[in-house]
Amino acid sequence: MKARRPTLSANTKSDSTPPERADLYALMAGEHAQLDKLLDKAASDGGAIDSEAYQDFRERLLKHIRIEERILLPMAERKRGEPISIAGQLRLDHGALAALLMLPPADYAFRAIRAVLDAHNPLEEVEGGVYDQCESLAGSEIAEVMAQIAATPRVPVSPWVNSPKVLAAARRVLARAGHDPALLGPLEDEFR
Ligand SMILES: [Fe+2]
Ligand SMILES: [Fe+2]
User: Fold this and answer.
1) What's the total number of domains in the chain?
2) Distance 125 CA to ligand 1 centre (A)
3) 63, part of any domain
4) 132 CA → ligand 2 middle, Å
5) 188 alpha carbon to ligand 2 midpoint, in Å?
6) In a domain, 52, yes or no
């Protein structure tokens, strides 16, 4: 069964961001933009796949996810006394992304990663969304949070794996997070 994904209200575009939005938003949304570019470079529409760009993308995205999972969400939970309402969906999406990053660089993997990011990043970037909530919950601790983020090292990434098992696992976590597992192509087309 397909999970129900959270929806966003109308004025959710990050390009309408007012300049006064704070440092945490700027840093993390800036990383989203860099990751988008890197994914475009790796996928290199219609051209050869850039494996080096894909490897760079994998490492940077896992580090970005680690910052959210190990610094931002725990801080928000500690401050509120309970997780922010969307934390469960974020973690499902992060799990789906981590599973997709185990796939070899191929069009079906890029298509699925792009679709998850296109649904996920606005939940964090929208005005009043995850980054804004984390910034205001951090309050006077924001400098400490920013320092922890700056000190986060790159994440060592396992080599990608070209295997039906890894692809099947990616399909399962995609579906669990409310995304269409058919993003990875029809079952009968795998590994022809
Ligand atoms: Fe995220
Ligand atoms: Fe993010």
Assistant:
1) 1
2) 10
3) yes
4) 12
5) 33
6) yes
Does residue 165 fall inside a structural domain? yes
Residue at 161 is within a domain: yes
Sequence-distant contacts of 154-160: CB under 8 A, at least 24 apart: 154/59, 154/60, 154/63, 155/59, 155/62, 155/63, 155/66, 157/55, 157/58, 157/59, 157/62, 157/101, 158/102, 160/58, 160/101, 160/102, 160/103, 160/104, 160/105
Alpha carbon of 192 to ligand 2 centroid (Å): 34
Task: Please give the residue range of the domain that contains residue 65.
Answer: 22-182
117 C-alpha to center of ligand 1: Å? 8
Mean pLDDT by 10 residues, the chain (192 residues): 52 46 91 96 79 94 98 98 97 98 93 97 96 95 95 92 94 96 74 46
Which residues place a Cβ less than 5 A from the ion ligand 2? Answer: 124
Ligand 1 midpoint to CA 120 (Å)? 7
